[in-house]
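hey so u asked for the seq, here:
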Amino acid sequence: MTDASAPPPPGTANLDYRVAHLADHLAAGPLGELGVRLELRGDAVLLTGTVPSTQCRDEIVHMAHEELAGHPVHCDILVAGTSSPDHGEDLT
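ran it, structure tokens below
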């Protein structure tokens, strides 16, 4: 039986705060990125979602490593395909 009043594991509460701060920074910052989700996985953080460019993904990963220094960051962010079609569509 676990004690509900027991403190969280060391660093977890601080990590929750840092993840929430990063999510706010992503949404309100110059990227205005709302398509990225941050999930706590034990002591690590998983980034998921879809972004418009590799530059955007790289900036998000860089910000996550800075904000969450000392914790593993795993990136599963996909880049949306925005290239123009290389052939016409055949409608028959």
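The chain has a mean pLDDT of 82. Strands lie at 36-41, 44-51, 73-79.
lmk if thats what u needed
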